[in-house]
Specification:
heterotrimer; A alpha/beta (297); B alpha/beta (408); C alpha/beta (310); B: 408 residues; alpha/beta; Rossmann fold; 2 domains; five-stranded mixed β-sheet; 15 helices; globular; C: 310 residues; eight-stranded mixed β-sheet; 8 strands
Chain lengths: 297, 408, 310
């Protein structure tokens, strides 16, 4: 069995990528299974999807904790503790990152492949950054046992179900074909089964109701959760030109633009989700946007 | 001053709430419960009770208001029945998870379809898994007493769960019998006016309650806490019962054993029909048949140990369920059997009996039929208390229902 | 005409306090969150939100709460009766149990349009009937957003939802009109009733400030552009909200002491297309061919509405 885990953000086609890969495996004559993990989070937030492809019946369900292949659609996730895309990876795990270059620290630990899918998607998909076809093509090719025609059939089937325009479908097919030809298969070794050991179960002890019921006594502690990692682009205020009109402050849904003592608006990048309303609404266009790039710690 | 007066089960429930000093009653009428809330409405309106009575728009709303008021620190009472319990089911699960104390009276009435007014226990059994504590009453006195005890259990810091007191519609709700109302001072000693034992909503204490969780482990943690709290209520029930006896002289155990000691045949029953069972036991004994009865009183948490101890060593047991899970049979039957599984002295036969549905009487001859059935070597289970008269009567109704069709 | 207090005149008058901390799992660019954020700025932190199941369930996820005030998650149809229970309990404790006035809470219901128009509708009507002292905040994103955008009674004619998709047999997608919740609530004469838009923060803030001073049922319907469900880029949320007002599709108004006043009026109404064409849920009205009749019906409905007030 080959276990593939796909990481990306809500809206990037991560679930669809897992489905295209599942269908491509199925059309190639394998047993297949795919499934997305829906968390609480929304558009822009980290998401995970899974595909299993196997010659034998698949007797697994649910999340893949130790994948054979990890496909990372968004390199900014690499340093995201919530998403933790490398969690459960072993030295044998094949890691693919959508990036122009291989992060050095990564290459020392894992077998890493990279391609700049973002530019390719931009080129083929009319300036969109939806990685469903691109990531599934990468996965199919890395596996090495999936035929190109099965992949293309899967792309077509899954995207038509989503009501895609014929022009965009063709773009996706061309994109998948190009990536398929660009990537080299890797030898994904089958792991040996480990002997089972029992989990150390405990009998829970009764807690006072204040702990035993869902009660939260720390108002505003949500700020401990940093949503800055949702951002694909970052708004930056040009303070040379900003006239402190505070339209950005008024319009920010998450209230992450504060007002400094001197009256200037200040963006809290720990929490800014990168909706970019502020940039669009700034009357003087004094807020510009900068693409976030992943920095591996 | 303590008095003994003739009260219906409904009036006894209202008196229980009154003597408990309830401060808030969100209410919605439904037969056969309505007399309870009408009585309380009057007492709030004329100042007998201090607090607020709010006419709600449904049982779903009523239980929700009861729960949120409990989370805001007042002593809450409400009552419902049958379809109302089902309509409020989502709220019942929700508020028991909030872990806020209150007492709810359910006046049992059978469930649609077909719709009827008369009692059986499918309504209360449907709340079996909500996380409520359940006390089932046989007499109007028990209704009154269980409400006072119920507040002690519900408000216990270890429990913090709603308590449901169950009585049968008609057979208790509309039936008058003498009920001893203790004097207020004794009640206050047993059950002081409400002081909160958990954080409640008020400005100085902002808090979030009942927030969503993601991930099965967190969900499991909270549900297990609810389980432990519910299980701890059995100990709490026993302690409360002992104190209740100290003040009022009546001792309630989780189950009541009636002529059990030498019984070869034991009927397991609950609620008002247990009285009928007791009467049958006496008659059977006069005929030389060693019969006995086990009455279930504390139904949640389920007192498995007490039940197993009571039934262990007796040869033949019949669990009479006044409810029906179609395709399975009686609802309490598997719970009783499970309690006994580990015991070496478990009965040689345990029969599931379905009777009393929709208020259908259980008569002395039914008990004799159960005994005979228990004695059969090839005893089939479940046994339906349904006789030839019932079948022929039903047949007559069917003929009327299609009379025109037959003529044409 | 009654003239209400207008404390705020410009953006800088907005209260600097944020009652909602960041870090929530709500979508980037959520219009409803912006509406609630601006509204809560006008109250002090002594509030309790009774929340209906919906997108805003994600505001508080154990062990986190973004609120400086209190929160009670209820059920989809249960936030209003929960508010009743809290209100009654506080009143009882203040009247009979010596709870100090300063411990009082402003009780708020937060519910989406699905809860407001559908499953929680009866309970809300009952609470207005009882004269419940509370603020109701409906974030209206015109569908069941939390489950992936299915038809609610607030979904507009001509829009596509997951359960009213555009097909050859059903070209318009949604073929029924949005329920007029404002008029229905108005028929019960609540103390105060207003529509608000996050794109009109001064208007919104003034309305909340006003509602905060009143007692009884105070109802808000907040136009809540939804990038995820409506299909537009998150950064356009406020632009879409503005177009909803400028085309006259979403009238900004209030009802107080028997009169309805439009507090923000589009000077010259833009054609409804300007609002529709930017959203994926209306794309079928323009592609593959233009649905003139459907667009005209939407325009006519807007024109008919404003004709009453012109």
């Amino acid at each position: 069995m080959w276990r593939i885990r796909i990481h990306g953000r809500g809206g990037q086609g991560i679930k669809t990528a897992s489905q295209i890969l599942g269908s491509a495996g199925f059309y190639s004559g394998f047993q297949a299974q795919d499934f997305p993990l829906y968390g609480a989070e929304r558009r822009g937030a980290p998401v995970i999807a899974f595909t299993r492809v196997s010659e034998d019946p698949i007797l697994e369900r649910g999340p893949i904790s130790s994948p054979d292949i990890i496909l990372i659609g968004d390199e900014t996730l690499l340093n995201d503790p919530q998403s933790a895309p490398l969690c459960g990876a072993e030295p044998s795990t094949v890691v693919f990152v959508n990036s122009a270059q291989v992060p050095e620290v990564l290459s020392q630990k894992f077998s890493v492949t990279t391609t700049n899918l973002t530019d390719l998607c931009f080129q083929y998909l009319n300036h969109r950054t939806v990685y469903s076809s691109a990531l599934s093509a990468v996965g199919a090719r890395l596996l090495g046992n999936i035929e190109l025609e099965c992949l293309l059939r899967a792309v077509e089937d899954e995207l038509i179900q989503q009501g895609i325009s014929s022009q965009l479908l063709q773009g996706n097919l061309d994109l998948a074909r190009e990536i398929f030809e660009m990537i080299q298969p890797v030898a994904v070794s089958q792991r040996e089964e480990k002997g089972l050991t029992a989990k150390p179960l405990v009998f829970p002890s009764q807690l006072p109701v204040v702990d035993g019921a869902p009660i939260i006594l720390d108002p505003g502690n949500m700020a401990l959760r940093k949503t800055g990692n949702w951002r694909v682009e970052r708004p930056e205020i040009d303070y040379e030109k900003c006239n402190n009109c505070l339209i950005c402050y008024a319009r920010c849904p998450d209230g992450v633009i504060g007002v400094a003592p001197d009256g200037r608006p200040e963006i809290d990048y720990d929490h800014c989700k990168g909706c970019l309303i502020c940039a669009l609404e700034c009357p003087g266009h004094f807020i510009h946007t900068v693409k976030e790039t992943g920095t591996f710690p | 001053m303590k008095t003994k007066i003739m009260l219906t089960g409904n009036k006894a429930a209202a008196w229980g709430a009154r003597m408990a000093g309830v401060e808030y009653v969100p209410a919605f009428p439904i037969t056969p419960q309505t007399e309870i809330i009408e009585t309380l409405a009057k007492w709030f309106a004329d100042g007998t009770l201090q607090g607020k009575f709010t006419n709600m728009d449904s049982e779903h709303s009523m239980f929700m208001a009861a729960g949120s008021a409990g989370a805001t620190g007042v002593r809450v009472f409400t009552a419902s029945s049958s379809q109302g319990i089902l309509h409020g089911m989502e709220s019942l699960y929700t508020i028991s998870g909030w872990r806020t104390p209150m007492v709810i009276v359910n006046v049992s009435r059978a469930l649609a379809t077909p719709i009827t007014l008369e009692p059986d226990h499918n309504d209360v059994m449907s709340t079996r898994d909500c996380g409520l504590i359940q006390l089932h009453a046989e007499t109007c006195q028990e209704v009154f007493d269980f409400i006072l005890m119920g507040y002690r259990i519900a408000e216990d810091p270890e429990v913090c769960l709603p308590v449901l007191v169950n009585m049968d519609g008609f057979y208790l709700s509309f039936t008058r019998e003498p009920v001893l109302i203790p004097d207020e001072e004794a009640v206050r000693n047993f059950l002081p006016l409400y002081t909160v034992t958990q954080p409640v909503f008020q400005a100085s204490r902002p808090m979030a309650r009942a927030s969503a969780v993601f991930g099965g482990a967190t969900y499991t943690s909270f549900k297990l806490q609810q389980e432990l709290a519910s299980r701890s209520a059995e100990k709490c029930f026993n302690q409360t019962a002992q104190e209740f006896e100290k003040y009022f002289g009546r001792l309630y155990e989780p189950v009541e054993a009636f002529h059990l000691d030498d019984a070869e045949y034991v009927f397991v029953m609950s609620n008002s029909f247990a009285t009928k069972g007791k009467s049958a036991v006496m008659k059977l004994r006069r005929q030389g048949i060693k019969a006995g009865l086990l009455k279930l009183r504390l139904f949640r948490p389920f007192p498995s140990e007490a039940i197993a101890s009571a039934l262990g060593g007796h040869a033949k047991v019949a669990v009479i369920d006044q409810n029906l899970a179609p395709g399975m049979g009686g609802i309490t039957y598997p719970e009783i059997v499970t309690s006994l599984y580990d015991r070496e002295d478990r009965p040689e036969k345990i029969l599931s009996v379905i009777g009393g549905l929709g208020g259908k009487d259980i008569e002395d001859q039914d008990f004799m039929a159960i005994i005979e059935h228990l004695d059969k070597p090839d005893m089939q289970t479940p046994l339906y208390l349904y006789d030839e008269g019932d079948a022929s009567g039903f047949s007559r109704l069917q003929q009327i229902a299609k009379l025109k069709e037959a003529l044409s | 005409m009654k003239v209400l207090t207008r404390a705020h005149k410009k953006i800088k008058d907005l209260h600097p306090h944020e009652a909602i901390a960041p870090g929530t799992g709500l979508c980037a660019g959520c219009g409803g969150l912006e509406g609630l954020r601006l509204g809560l700025k006008e109250l002090d932190d002594d509030f309790l939100i009774c929340n209906a199941a919906g997108c805003f369930t994600l505001l508080s996820v154990y062990p986190f709460t973004p609120l400086q005030g209190s929160w009670l998650y209820t059920t989809m149809g249960g936030p209003v009766p929960a508010a009743q229970g809290v209100r009654d309990a506080l009143d009882i404790r203040m009247r009979y149990r010596g709870l100090e006035e300063k411990e009082n809470l402003q009780v708020i219901v937060v519910a989406g349009d699905g809860s407001s128009n559908d499953i929680g509708f009866g309970a809300t009507s009952a609470a207005i009937h009882r004269g419940l002292d509370f603020i109701y905040f409906c974030y209206d994103n015109e569908a069941y957003g939390n489950t992936g955008f299915q038809l609610s009674a607030a979904s507009p004619y001509g829009g596509a939802t997951q359960t009213t998709p555009r097909t050859d047999e059903h070209e318009a997608g949604t073929e029924v009109n949005k329920k007029d919740l404002f008029e229905i609530w108005k028929a019960q004469k609540p103390v105060y009733l207003a529509t608000v838009s996050p794109r009109e923060p001064i208007d919104l803030s003034n309305k909340f400030a006003r509602a905060n001073e009143l007692k009884g049922p105070r109802m808000f319907i907040c136009m809540s552009p939804c990038p995820t469900g409506w299909g537009f880029e998150p950064k356009e949320a406020q632009l879409i909200a503005k177009l909803a007002v400028d085309t006259g599709i979403f009238p900004i108004k209030e009802y107080f002491e028997g009169e309805v006043v439009h507090t923000v009026r589009p000077r010259k109404r833009l054609p409804v297309e300007k609002f529709l064409e930017r959203q994926k849920r209306f794309r079928h009205l323009f592609e593959p061919h233009r649905q003139e009749e459907t667009i005209r019906q939407i325009q006519n409905r807007v024109d008919d509405y404003w004709r009453q007030y012109e």
